[in-house]
């Protein structure tokens, strides 16, 4: 089993050695499983998840889901399309802002571009901090600055995405050969010129691919921003849910599923062609 | 330096398309640097009010409630991670080519999984709040679905790459599909499975922190109320505590994952 055949998505899925489990590991696994069950018990105990609540709630959920799709409110489709296209707009502009603003962060966080060891650490820390603030919380803050609506959503998506895009940029820059950068530097190129001629040509396709991947995630994010008033289809979800217009909620859900699926597909296809 | 392609019309075409999409988005979202420049001072003022100061200190008396809500957040995330990944185990009996009873069952299983994964977590949570009532229960159920989607996908993908030798040996000895899964496949992927569960847990903590913004329990609920009531000192403290909890859990879980595999 080679690591190359495995999915990299989990970030830690490199191969286990088959047949590694001896008697000791087995005992350890049982301990792990038991503590997981105990912790689950503790978690559920604090959440007031009782069989009564479930047996009362689940039939109700079933009724609502039936009302959503038998049939959905097709007359609401033009409004859904409008909300969805606004979500796409938020995602597109937000991704663009992040893709540009992440450049200096990525350069700062890359180990092979600076002579000081501290700078990349500062850069990585900054990216981590940015990533930790959820889009929705940022959206609530930007609503303070520019008022409710899609503009606040663009800013929230744009700032939050810097964290992940910057981290991917930095990791990619770190695979650029240090010797060629030093050669440029030795021939009198300024740091900016080293970046422009030594780094950019090599990493550009991958950077575009990272931006496309983030766009994919941002379209999902932009469908929920409206739940806190930051534009897109989420605002219509909120309105129709509060009004208990379930067939319209059903139409929205179908629209969201189709849009996310479509963007997923297109983004994956484009990325496959880029690299 | 790489040689230039003869005529990069494709690149130009793509750049033009991107520019057109951005212009369309600019108009549609009302993006305006002037509005931003005007609004930033107000936001700065707001942020300043969130930071602790002499007239608006972060009171220790807020801590018990915040702590309780944070605990609820972690509980939601943890329970959803365990239940969701437990549910994804039997799924591999249809979700992987090597274990599925038939091609159509495999296609159906994978199709369902792809459909499930397109539903944004908070959209699901919002709908479930309407169905199950306010509180942690709808958040938990939404994250169970979400975890199932991630872990079932990653686990199925991993199983399709494992060494088929043991599986073929059990099949040759007359073993059933379940026996093949239990004795040939699961021992090989157990560390990956644990890593995927932890990975889902990390994401779940981040999502659970904002679930309350749509009424689905956890610390987000406190944040929403505080924002609506303009309790500045508390908002700052809540945002800061979310930040700390997410960072700590992320670091711990990443460390644990690096030891697992």
From TrEMBL, chain B:
Q: Where in the cell is it found?
A: Cell membrane
Q: What is its main location?
A: membrane
State a GO cellular component annotated for this protein: plasma membrane
Q: For the ABC transmembrane type-1 domain, which residue ranges apply?
A: 70-253
* InterPro entries per the UniProt record, alphabetical: MetI-like, MetI-like_sf, PhnE/PtxC
According to the UniProt entry, its GO molecular function terms are: ABC-type phosphonate transporter activity
UniProt entry tagged with the keyword Transport: yes
Has UniProt tagged this entry with the keyword Transmembrane helix? yes
Query: Mind listing the UniProt keywords for this protein, alphabetically?
Result: Cell membrane, Membrane, Transmembrane, Transmembrane helix, Transport
Give the transmembrane region(s). Answer: 76-100, 121-148, 203-223, 235-256
Membrane disposition: Multi-pass membrane protein
The UniProt entry's sequence similarity note says: Belongs to the binding-protein-dependent transport system permease family.
- Protein name as catalogued: Phosphonate ABC transporter permease protein phnE
